Amino acid sequence: MSSHRGVKRDHFVSCRQICKEFTDLLTQDRTPLGNTRPSPILDPGIQGCLTHFSLITHGFGSAAICAAMTSVQNYLNEALKIADKTYMNAGDQSPAETNKTIDKMDKHRK
């Protein structure tokens, strides 16, 4: 049972890390907007794709995705806090109570 708990927590941590890396990539976007011409810092192939994305979204694409990813990261941080509290207190509960708590978390996540 405890290995199942660790796997779920590991999934949250991995997902949070992927979201962070993606957000970090988007914040390095140096697409020219308006009169600005920032110096590119990313590989030209990656920057070209980000510039194309920015152009087809009228400059709002990267900013909108970053805002959404920040929300996802906040959700994952809160989910990890709840999971840690639930699993730390699980030793104080009977296995049936622990399963009910985990089932509630799973339903809430869906």
Automatic annotation (TrEMBL):
Ranges of biased composition (kind: Basic and acidic residues): 100-110
Reading the lineage from the top rank, the first entry is Eukaryota
Q: What segment(s) does the record annotate as region Disordered?
A: 89-110
Gene Ontology molecular function, alphabetical: DNA-binding transcription factor activity, RNA polymerase II-specific; RNA polymerase II transcription regulatory region sequence-specific DNA binding
List the protein's name.
Transcription factor AP-2 C-terminal domain-containing protein
What keywords were assigned to this record? DNA-binding, Nucleus, Transcription, Transcription regulation
Q: Which family does it belong to?
A: Belongs to the AP-2 family.
Alphabetical GO CC annotations of the entry are:
nucleus
Q: Does the keyword Transcription regulation apply?
A: yes
Compartments (UniProt record):
Nucleus
Name all Transcription factor AP-2 C-terminal domain ranges. 11-79
Q: Keyword Transmembrane helix on this protein?
A: no
Provide one Gene Ontology biological process annotation. regulation of cell population proliferation
Q: Which InterPro entries match?
A: TF_AP2, TF_AP2_C
